[in-house]
Amino acid sequence: MIQMSQALDLIDVSHEVIGPDILISGFLQPIPDLSPVIPSIDETAVLDPTVSPFESKIIFFYKTWDPFGAFSNFSPHFIWLPDETGDSFSWPTVEHYYQAQKFMRIDKPLAKDFIQQIKRARSPEEAARIGRKVQKEHSEW
């Protein structure tokens, strides 16, 4: 028998009991050999109705494997920016830094702990999951 968690090769899998149900979530592994998908004219209009689909200066970089994927928050490139102490820190990705910024100005020990968790996240997907989950659980911050 194959368990649901074995159906897809997910990373950062988490389980959450919601009433009588269990929510299982995770992220798909990046697939670097996929060809980029160029949005159709209709899809481009949905993404941003103010942009002409014939604009030659449009680049898409949502996925790290897109031609301009190095511009993605999830792109695996370190950046040196201040951390919560003001010291220069080598953030694994822009996404790590972005998620940690949600808690930088909160003067609570728990917020500092979450920043440390985000710093240690093994992937940008995990950093995003931590940041989103904490932001949802502590909306009063």
UniProtKB/TrEMBL annotation:
<dbReference type="InterPro" id="IPR012816">
    <property type="entry name" value="NADAR"/>
</dbReference>
<dbReference type="Pfam" id="PF08719">
    <property type="entry name" value="NADAR"/>
</dbReference>
<feature type="domain" description="NADAR">
    <location>
        <begin position="60"/>
        <end position="141"/>
    </location>
</feature>
<dbReference type="InterPro" id="IPR037238">
    <property type="entry name" value="YbiA-like_sf"/>
</dbReference>
<protein>
    <recommendedName>
        <fullName>NADAR domain-containing protein</fullName>
    </recommendedName>
</protein>
